[in-house]
């Protein structure tokens, strides 16, 4: 198995948000979006941050997601403990009502020493 600790890491978090009406859910989505987008450029080692909002409308879909990328597992771990991230998490208590997460190493050809034809 390849050692992944020095590879870039993709961190995806999917949420359902609170709200009893479409308007309340839209407001919750915008609150979450604004909070996380304010982290852009504030977290060392974070190389990408995107917020996606579900357009499928299917009942089993999450409402939104955060897709972020980090230089390494260490950078992701530092993000998890970063005061700005912790403050966002605390401010969003009760706004996000379900959470699912996947973190995985990004295996791009430029991230390995193996190349075609070797």
In short:
The chain is of the alpha+beta class.
Descriptive notes:
With 118 residues, the chain is of the alpha+beta class. It has 3 helices and 4 strands, in the order βαββααβ. The protein has a 4-stranded antiparallel beta sheet. The protein starts with 8 loop residues before the first strand and ends in a 13-residue tail after the last strand. The C terminus is likely disordered.
Helix-strand blueprint:
Elements: E1 9-17, H1 22-37, E2 46-53, E3 64-70, H2 73-81, H3 83-91, E4 96-105
Antiparallel strand pairs: 1-3, 1-4, 2-3
List keywords for this structure.
four-stranded antiparallel beta sheet; disordered C terminus; about 120 residues; alpha+beta; about 30% helix; globular
């Amino acid at each position: 198995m390849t050692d992944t600790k020095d590879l870039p890491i993709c961190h995806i978090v999917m949420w359902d948000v609170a709200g009893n009406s479409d308007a309340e859910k839209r407001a919750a989505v915008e609150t979450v979006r604004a909070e996380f987008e304010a982290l852009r450029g504030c977290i060392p080692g974070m190389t990408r941050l995107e917020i996606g909002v579900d357009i499928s409308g299917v009942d089993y879909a999450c409402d939104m997601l955060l897709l972020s990328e980090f230089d390494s597992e260490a950078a992701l771990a530092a993000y998890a403990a970063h005061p700005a991230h912790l403050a966002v998490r605390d401010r969003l208590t009760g706004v996000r009502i379900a959470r699912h997460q996947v973190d995985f190493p990004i295996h791009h050809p430029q991230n390995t020493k193996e190349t075609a034809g070797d």
